[in-house]
Structures are given as structure tokens and as C-alpha cells.
Amino acid sequence: MGDKYLNLVNSGITKDLAKRLGLPRPAHLRRYHPGAPLVTGPVLVVGKGAGADAAASTLLDWNLDVRRHSGPKEKLGAIVLALDAIEHPDDLAAPVLETGAALKGLQPGGRVISISRPATAGDPTAVAAARQGVDGLLRSIAHELRGGATGNGILLTDGVDAAATSVTGALRFFLSGRSAYVDGQFLLVGSGKGSVPTDWERPLAGQVAVVTGAARGIGAAIARTLRRDGADVVVVDVPAAGDHLADVANEIGGTALQLDITADDAGQRILDHALGRYGRLDIVIHNAGITRDKLLANMDESKWNSVLAVNVAAQLRINEQLMSSGGFNKSPRIVSLASTSGIAGNRGQTNYAASKAAVIGMVRATAPLLANQDGTINAVAPGFIETEMTARMPLATREVARRLNSLQQGGRPADVAETVAFLAGSSAGGISGQVLRVCGQNLVGA
């Protein structure tokens, strides 16, 4: 499942050859490792006002080297562009051009993170124009970055300031290696309650999580990451995958539940297992999913119904059972796996794309229902991820899919898992009803 091309163009004689020929040269991404520095160099904070001051204060609290102005040829680990106070498109010029000059010193694997507010229908026209402008400029910056660097944005809703816990949580996620394959994306932070973990290295300590479809691939990676971050984990999959499921459970010191999630009582059985083994349930990760690809003209009823049943109907039923049970009501966290296919569509995947788009709709509609319990629900939409399934794709198709994003490579299951773990944590308590793409800024779709 490895990307041999990426390794070739980053080593030895083939690296020089690729450079001379002008071939695409994807970089090895800066990914998270326990104990690794949050950022690899100084962090430049650009902008004026409350957002810039709050960001600088937060970064200093994390013992980072913070600069408010960058010197010539200075090497930077990250740039934080605070634009939350802009009121007119003219206000963009000074901070954005200062950022542009500093980009030349951004180290490989660096980060650019904007902090701004979304445009809304009630804004004065100039304010709305300026705020919407941030969307285009940040995504364009992300396209321009090289060396595995990424650009992402944090959006503050009305009444939320840049010092809010979930803003700092999002800032830390985007700065870190955990967000290696998240690029060109925005996270909207609302007024929900978040809390700072006691230990940023183990932010899920004391929590109990359930992961469906956990026998292999992305699901197994999610289970491993949640356990690494401190959670006790129940792994769930169909009986046919029982051996692989047991291997994952044994590896992480968790428990296995063999279960068809389309069963009418799946939600209650999940809850009973978690309460019986651990006395609580805090996090549910809906990862289980199937594909039955066919052109719509050749699609039969069984292929359509089976995909919708597993990928979205089961989630709806399980969520309803959990939310009405009384055993899943203390700041619950739900994260569902969507897909970029559900955003942009994909040839031969009308059933799969419909199911993943439906997951996004479910997440948005469920978020207000969890708000009174300080709960959240979000979706993660992977792009091209290196799995056993994508390894079976024809070589040419696989190579095109790998390069069709700003980072010019496929992601890893661990990249999806890192994003899921962040959204499941206490510091993301103000983030709900959102869809975060893990796609390297795929060039197809929104």
C-alpha cells in the first residue's frame, strides 16, 4: 500500500532526476509522534486586534517561540493570520501581504492558519465581502504551499472569541502533525462548551469509545489512535471479521463486540456492552461502511439498499437508541465517517455518494439535539486514503487519484484517525455539526 513514487522522488539519484525533469515531487508529511514538538520553529502571528492577541497568548502558554513581526529570511514553523477584526476588503491587504512575504521562510511541514469570522446574511455588505474573501485567500494559500506545508482556517461564530477553549483546541490540532493530511479546510467554532485536557498527549484519558467497522483499515487505525490517546475502546464488526477484530482488541487492550450494525437492537447492544465492561460510554465512532459500485443504469435494488442500510440507516437507528437511553448523555461525542464522494459525487457510486451525503445531513440535523447535553456530532470526509481497497485499484487510476490534491499524495488511515480523535476530545466541545475533509485539499469538489 506504500507510495513508491513518493519515496523515489525524495531520495538518491531519482530525486535529482525528478527535479531536473520537473516531475511532481510530493513531500514526506510531518505527522504526529508522541513527544514530538508541536511546531518545528517560531510561530509568526500576523494581524491586529483580539484574535491576534489571544493567539499569541495561547502560543506563549504552550512555550512556543512567538513573533509578531518576521525578519528577512527568517525560518518559521507556522504563521497564524488573525483576520477576525476585518470590516472591509481593504483591511485584507496589509496582513495578507505581510503573510505572503513571510511564506518564503516557511519550513517544510509548516502551517498557515487563519482566524476569522464567517460571512452571514445579517452582516453589512462590506463586512460580508471581507469575511467571505478569507475563504478564497486561505484556500489559495494552501494550493501554493510546498514541502508538505498546509493551510487551514478557524471560523468564529458570533459571541465566540479567539480565546475560547475550542478555538485553542482547533489551533493546536492544525499546528500539530495530527493534521498532516488536512489542507485547505475551515472549522466553524460555536458556543458549545469545551475543556482543556489535563494531558495534551493523552486527551481521551478516562473516556470509553466504541468504533464500528474496526477489524481492519481505517477503523482499526481509529481504534489504535483512540487507545493511544488514553481511551478504553470497544471495537465492533460483523461476525465474519471476528478473527481480525479479536486481533485489534488484543493489540489495544480493548474488548471486541461481534455485531451486525443493521440489527434492530444494535444501539442497545453497544450500550449494554460498554456499560457492562466499563460502566460508561462517552464516544461513538461510526466507521462501518460498504461499497457496491455500479453505474446507475446497472444498479439493482440489493446493491442500493445494502449500501444505504449499512452506511446511514444503521447510524440513524443507533444514534436514536443511544440518545434516548439515558446512558449516553454526559457530554457525548459522535463522529461519523462521510466521504468526499458524498460532497463531489463519483462515477459509479450513486448509492455510496448518496449514503455519505446523507451522513452529512444527519450530522447537521443531529447537532442541535445534542447541544443541551453539551454533546457534539461531526463528520470526517476522507479523500484518497491508502488502504487495502485502494491498493486493488488499477495502477493508472490509483496514481491519478494520489496526485489529484495539493499535497500530491494519498493519505494514510492514521490521518483519518487523528482527525476523528481530535473531534472526539473535550477541546472540540464547541465544534458540532461540521464536516472536516481529510483529503490533502483534493482538487475535486467543494
Summarize the entry for a quick read.
The protein has 446 residues and is α/β, with parallel strands linked by helices.
Question: Can you put this structure into words, describing what you see?
Answer:
- The protein has 446 residues and is of the alpha/beta class.
- The chain folds into two domains: 31-189, NAD(P)-binding Rossmann-like Domain (Rossmann fold); 208-438, 3-Layer(aba) Sandwich (Rossmann fold).
- Helix content is 40%, strand content 16%.
- The chain has 15 helices and 13 strands.
- The protein has helices at 4-8, 12-21, 50-61, 93-103, 125-144, 165-175, 217-228, 242-252, 266-278, 301-323, 341-344, 350-371, 388-391, 395-403, 413-424; strands at 43-46, 66-67, 76-82, 106-116, 150-156, 186-189, 208-212, 232-237, 255-258, 283-286, 333-337, 376-382, 435-438.
- The strands form two sheets. It has a seven-stranded parallel beta sheet, with helices on both faces.
- Helix 9 (266-278) crosses helix 10 (301-323) and helix 10 packs parallel to helix 12 (350-371).
- It is globular, with a radius of gyration of 22 Å.
Helices and strands, in order, run as HHEHEEHEHEHEEHEHEHEHEHHEHHHE
Query: Which oligomerization state do the chains in this entry correspond to?
Result: single chain
Overall morphology: globular
**Computed structural class:** alpha/beta
Strands across the major sheet, in which order?
9-8-7-10-11-12-13
- Overall average residue pLDDT: 94
Unreliable residue stretches: none
- The name of the CATH superfamily of the largest domain reads NAD(P)-binding Rossmann-like Domain
How many structural domains does the protein architecture include? 2
What fraction of the residues are assigned to beta strands by DSSP? 15-25%
Distance between the termini: 27 Å
Architecture of the largest domain, according to CATH?
Answer: 3-Layer(aba) Sandwich
Question: The biggest beta sheet, please?
Answer: 7 strands, parallel
What's the CATH topology name of the largest domain?
Rossmann fold
Highest CATH level, the class of the largest domain = Alpha Beta
> What is the number of E strands?
13
Number of helices: 15
Rounded radius of gyration (Å): 22 Å
Helix content: 40-55%
